[in-house]
Design brief:
- It contains no helices and 6 strands.
- The chain has about 70 residues and is an all-beta fold.
- The strands form 2 sheets. The protein has a 4-stranded antiparallel sheet with strand order 3-2-5-6, with no helix packed on it.
Length: about 70
Amino acid sequence: GGEWVAHVEVVREGDAFMPVELRVGAETRTLHSREPTQVVYFRLSERPTDAILHPDQVLLHIDGDNDRATF
């Protein structure tokens, strides 16, 4: 096996804040930073196919289309 390193830039728009989950591959992390931009690194044993912000869809917002990116 090998190792895959993925980095995901998360940009928070507006003044509202709450912790949010980020899933890349099989790994999920909770982001607590209040910074408007943060870069999160993942080291994975399998190649990830996508990154999903709040994968359980618990946040209410207008545009959910910007919550997923594919690699």
